[in-house]
Amino acid sequence: MRWLDWVVIVAWLVFVVGDSLRRTRGTTGLTGYFLANRSLPWWAVGLSVMATQLSAITMIGTTGQGATDGLRFVQFYFGLPLAMVILGVTLVPFLHGARVFTAYEYLERRFDAKTRALTAFLFLCSRGLSCGTIIAAPAVVFAGIFGWDLRFTVALIGIPTVLYTMIGGVQAVAWADVKQMVIITGSLLAIVVVLLLRIPVTPDEALVVAGTAGRMQPFDWSFDVTKTYTVWSGLIGGTFLMLSYFGTDQSQVQRYLTAKSVAEARTSLLMSAYWKIPLQALVLLIGVLVFVFYVFNRPPMLFNPAHDARVREAEPAAYRDLQTRHEVAWGLRRQLAPAIGGRGGWAVETFRKADSALVTTRTEALALAGRVTGENSRDVNYIIPHFVRTQLPVGLAGLFIAAILAAAMSAVSAELNSLASATVIDFYRRWVRPEATDAHFLAVSRGATALWGLAACVVATYAASLGSLIEVVNRFGSFFYGSILGVFLLAMAPWARAGGAFVGLIAGMTVVGLVSFGAPQVSFLWHNVIGAVTVVLVGSVLRVGASGTVAKAGAA
Amino acid sequence: MTEPSSTEPPSPRPGFLATLVRVLLVQAIALGALALLQYRYGR
To answer: Which pTM does this prediction carry?
Structure first.
C-alpha cells in the first residue's frame, strides 16, 4: 500500500462519517432515529436499499466468482424485478400505511404477540451474526493480501460505522449509503477502464477468449432443482427469496419506511428493479475481464498468499509438481489465446484443454491447501484484491479499497440500525418499559446500536474460530426465510388467524429443515418457495386464534 | 388519496400493470443484452 492510497482511504472515511453526522442534526425522537421522520426522498431511499444489499462480499466474492465461473450467477437476481413490483402493491403500502417501526410490529396487530416475538427473535439471531461475518469477510482477505492485522481492519470498518449509526440513526445510515453507492459504482467503472487498457487485445477479442473458456453463459435453461443457478431457480426461487428479503427483513423494510410516502417508498424499490441486474452483470463482467487479464499475464496458482506460503513450506515436492503443471498449462493457453478469434478449429479445442488442465491443477492445489491448513481457503475471494494490489495504479487502488470498505459499512450500518430497532421496539418497549419517554427510548436505542456493533466486531474478530457456528446459524437462517414470508402473506389474507399463522410458521421451518437434511441436493433457492407455500397452506387450513387488523394500507 | 378501511382485503392498485410492463420492458432490454452476449461469445 502506497501513501496516496492511504490518503484516499482516510479522506473517504472522514468524509462519510463527517457528512453523515452533519446531516443528522435534529434527530431528537424515536421516529427521527429509526424512521427519519418519514422524510427521505425516493432516490436516497432507493440508493440506501441497493447499498444495504451490496456488501463487501459482492465486491470481492462476486467479482472472483465472475473470474472462475463467468456470468452464471446473474441468474440469482432474475426474480428481483418482479418481487419489487409485487412488493410495491402489497407489503409496502401495508407496512408504510400501518405507521409501524418494524415489520414484526405489524404482525402483532394482525395476529398476536408471540408471532411478532418469534419473527423478531429469528431476525435478531440471524442478522446479529451475519453482521459480524460482513465485517469479517473483507478483514480476513485484507489480512491475507496486505498483511493488515485482522483487528485493525475490523476496527477500520467497525468504529466509523458504529459511530455514525449510533449517533445519527437511520438518517446517517441512508445518507452514508448514498455516498457509498456513488463510490462503489465509480470504482467499478474505473476498474473496467483499467482492465480494458491492460488487456492486450480488443474488447471483442477479450470476450471471445472468455466465451471460449465458458465464462460467457449467463443463461442456464435446464430445470434441475439440484443446480443452484438456473433461469428457473432465479425466477421462481429468487422471486420468493427477494420477496422475503425486501418485504419482511427489517434491515430492508426500515429503508423504505423512511420514505415520505407510499408512492416514494414504491419508487425507491423500483430503482433496484431497474438497476440491480445491470449492476450485478457489471460486477460479474469485471471478474470475467480479470480472468482474461490472467490469460495474458501469469496468475499465481493460489491467490491466497498465506495458504500459498504454507503449502510451499509443508509440501514442497507436491507444490513444485503442481506449480510446473500450472505453468505449462498457462503457457499453452497464453500462446493460443490470440489465435482463437475464429470459431472452432484446432486452436479453440487446444485452448479449452489447456484451460481445463489449469482448472484441474488449481483444484488440486486448493485441496492440498485445505489439507495443509485445515481451512477452507475461499481462494475466489482473493482474486480481485490480488489484482488491485498488483495492477491498479496508485490512488485507484486506494479508491477501490475504500469502495470495499464502503460496501461493508453500508451493509453493516443498516443491519445495526435495524437490529437496534427490533431490540427496542419489539422487545424493550413491548415487554420491559412500555411507558417510558421518547428520550429514554432514544438513549436505549443508541446503547443497543453500540452493543450490537460491539458484538459484530467481536464475532468478526473471532470469525475464523466461530466458522462452524456461523455456518450452522446461516443454515438455520435459510430454514425460516421463506417461512417468515409465508406469515406476512397470511397477514394479507382476510381468512387467516393467529393460531394458524404461528403453527404455520413452525411447520414451514420444520418442512424446510427436513428437506434441507433429507434432500441436501435441492438448491437453497427452492427452500424459500417450500417454506412460504407450507406456511400459507397450513395457516389457511388451520383457522384458530384471534384475528386483528387485516390491513391498514397507505394510499399512493 | 384514499385510505382503505382497516378490514378491507388487499387489491391490486391502479398503475400496477403499467409499472409491471415498464419494469418488464427494461428487464427485457437488460436480459436481451445478456442473451446477445451469450449468442455472440458463449457458444
So the answer is: 0.89
